[in-house]
Amino acid sequence: LHMAAAKGRVVLILDALNQLEDRDGAPDLVWLPPVMPPNVRLIVSTLPGRPLDEIRKRGWPTTDVKPLNPDERKQLILEFLRDYGRHLSLARIERIAGAEQSANPLYLRVLLDELRLFGEHERLDERIDHYLAAKTVPELYRKILSRWEADYEDDRPGLVLDAMTAVWAARRGLSEAEILEILGSDDRLRPRGGWLERLKGLIVGRQGQAREYRPLPRATWSPLYLAMSDALVSRGGLLTFAHDFLRQAARQAYLPTEDQQQKAHVRLADFFERRSPGPRQTDELPWQLAEAGAWQRLFALLADRDFFKAAWRHNQFEVKAYWVRIEAASPLRMVEAYRAQITRPEAERDKNLLWFLGFLLADTGHPAEALSVRTSLADHFRGTGDLANLQACLGNQAVILRARGDLDGAMALLKEQERLCRELGNKDGLGTSLGNQALILQDRGDLDGAMALHKEEERLCREMGNKDGLQASLNNQAAILRHRGDLDGAMALHKEQERLCRELGNEDGL
């Protein structure tokens, strides 16, 4: 932005920030510079929610967009239809503009889109009345869903229902290829029922034999897809609803009960479970099972060694959150899923699995189990001479010993970690060791010594670009300042920590 502004004035318009995907702090605007260059004017729009909250925190001026007045509605009707070579009589324009719900620009635009596609002029008044009977945007979309069913289901009964249900149930949306596969069929066998029932019948067959499964032909899908084009949006190649009004309409029309909604999530879980391992399965499958309340299946999935590693690499905070939900809603317990690794960690050949498991156990209130795993890892790395991993293990063990009150034992491990890191030139590990030593000094009441180590930790983190370590250091420094009564200084550090955590998507730190 600074480079662009140096060449001339820039006006940047960003519409519908409320539709940003909730990933990497996007709704909290961590990607948007808090200060604009003087030559840049930024205009954004959003519904109430996290983006608007952040905008107000920044003190940016805001204005409410008011509903359209009758004259504006008439102007929009005339100009919108003129773009498509269409027009309405003055009486029809007056009737549409006079409807209270037409004050909503989205309602009016969707209505006009429908009217421009309607080809029976002698029934136009009847059609206008039909749509104006809808008093809200979701009600209007309910009528459009019915029209899509009438127009696009000759070759594939239930096409609109199955497509809308699948998109509604998806976490982040579905690729077009996934939709075609979900809606697919087999020419030799077409059992009745929804897409999942057909899919099961086609794959297994009536005699238990594997059957050929074919995606829905594009010739069947494309007319509906083109009709829905303004109602869908592609985010990262995944199709989802362009706004919540169609989502509400689809839920009300096809999934009005919680039981139906859970079954929709089970269907998508079944679909992603059959797919080859990869980022899409890792992202969607556990989420679908959690939304379906399928706790036993989610328990078994997270207990799977390969899936657990993939999920942890994908988003460790979500893995922890899934276990919280499982344990809150069922008698299933996380430690039982990993009992073999906890009781005999030395027998586990996959050290990456143990590494991730140690963090999971430590972060979810299982210090004894975490210490067992981490002690085994430290013994392994000592035996193999892997000093880089050994230093990290020592630090992880020290965290547990400190939590148990063994400050001397923890400090001894941290001193060994510090020595190894200085020997290896590992500044990240050194910063972590110093930060943890500082916490022990805080526990002992040596705030000056603790602050000195935190400051060195902060310097190393900034030098290495270690934002996660930096936010932790700032948090701990703020605690010391607060203890000393320097509330302004503490708040300033916490604000920087908050910004870093939102940027990192670190919900624990946040």
Produce the secondary structure layout.
Blueprint: H1 2-5, E1 10-14, E2 40-44, H2 50-57, H3 70-83, H4 90-98, H5 105-117, H6 124-132, H7 137-152, H8 159-169, H9 176-182, H10 195-204, H11 218-227, E3 232-235, E4 238-241, H12 244-254, H13 258-274, H14 279-292, H15 295-303, H16 305-314, H17 316-329, H18 334-337, H19 339-343, H20 351-363, H21 367-384, H22 387-403, H23 407-424, H24 427-443, H25 447-464, H26 467-483, H27 487-504
Parallel strand pairs: 1-2
Antiparallel strand pairs: 3-4
Helix pairs in contact: 3-4, 3-5, 5-7, 7-12, 8-12, 13-14, 14-15, 15-17, 16-17, 20-21, 21-22, 22-23, 22-24, 23-24, 24-25, 24-26, 25-26, 26-27
Task: Give short descriptive properties of this protein.
510 residues; mainly alpha; two-stranded parallel sheet; two-stranded antiparallel ribbon; 27 helices; 65% helix; globular
What would you note in describing this structure?
- The chain is mainly alpha-helical.
- 65% of the residues lie in helices and 4% in strands.
- It has helices spanning 2-5, 50-57, 70-83, 90-98, 105-117, 124-132, 137-152, 159-169, 176-182, 195-204, 218-227, 244-254, 258-274, 279-292, 295-303, 305-314, 316-329, 334-337, 339-343, 351-363, 367-384, 387-403, 407-424, 427-443, 447-464, 467-483, 487-504, and strands at residues 10-14, 40-44, 232-235, 238-241.
- The strands form two sheets. Strands 1-2 form a two-stranded parallel ribbon. It has a two-stranded antiparallel sheet with strand order 3-4.
- β3 (232-235) and β4 form a beta hairpin.
- α8 packs across α12 and α23 runs antiparallel to α24 (427-443).
- The longest helix is centred in the C-terminal third of the chain and has 18 residues, at 367-384.
- The protein is globular and about 90 Å long.
- The chain starts with a helix and ends in a 6-residue tail after the last helix.
